[in-house]
Amino acid sequence: MMTQENWMFLYDDKEETRTRFVSFVGDTNRFDLAIIQTDRFYGKLLVLNLQSNKFAIIGPDDLKEPGYLEHVYGLSEAEAKELEQFLWSMIG
Q1: Does the pLDDT of residue 5 top 80, yes or no?
Q2: Residue 36: is its pLDDT beyond 90?
Q3: What's the rounded Cα separation, in Å, for the pair 1 and 3?
Q4: Which of 18, 57, 80, 88 could be joined to 37 by an S-S link, Cβ 3.0–4.6 Å?
Q5: In the chain, pLDDT over 70 holds for what percent of residues?
Q6: What angle do CA 52, 14, 34 make, to 5 degrees?
Q7: Do 35 and 47 meet the contact criterion of CB atoms below 8 Å apart?
Q8: SS3 letters across the chain
Q9: pTM of this prediction?
Q10: What is the tens place of the pLDDT at every residue in 9-35?
Q11: Which of 39, 38, 40, 35 is nearest to 19 (CA)?
Q12: Long-range contacts from 11-17, C-beta under 8 angstroms, 24+ separation
C-alpha cells in the first residue's frame, strides 16, 4: 500500500485562477462550461464541458486546428463550430 511518505511529487503548486461558468444554447446544442484562466497553461484556457465531463487546454492555435474540438469533446462539426465561435470571443 502506498503511503504519503512514498509519494514522489512532480509538482504541488497553488495558484490564483479566474473561473467563469457559462451555459448557452446554440442552434445545435446546449453547452455548460467551466472556463478556467491561469498562468499555468501559457495563456491558454482550461475548458471543461460539464455535460460530458471532457476537458481541454485551448488556445488560438488549437481553435485553428481542423477537427480539434470535434475530437476532444466528441461533437459534430456544427456543434464544434458553435463552441469555436464562443471560445474565440473568450480568447480573441
Answers
A1: no
A2: yes
A3: 6
A4: 18
A5: 97
A6: 25
A7: yes
A8: CCCHHHCCCCCCCCCCCEEEEEEEECCCCEEEEEEEECHHHCCCEEEEECCCCEEEEECHHHHCCCCHHHHHHCCCHHHHHHHHHHHHHHHC
A9: 0.87
A10: 898 899 999 999 999 999 999 999 999
A11: 35
A12: 13/40, 15/39, 15/40
Cell output for 30: 446546449
The answer to whether residues 81 and 73 touch, using CB atoms and an 8 Å cutoff, is no
Instruction: Say whether pLDDT at 56 is over 90.
Output: yes
Owner of C-alpha cell 478556467: 36
First to last CA, the chain: 48
C-alpha cell, 65: 486546428
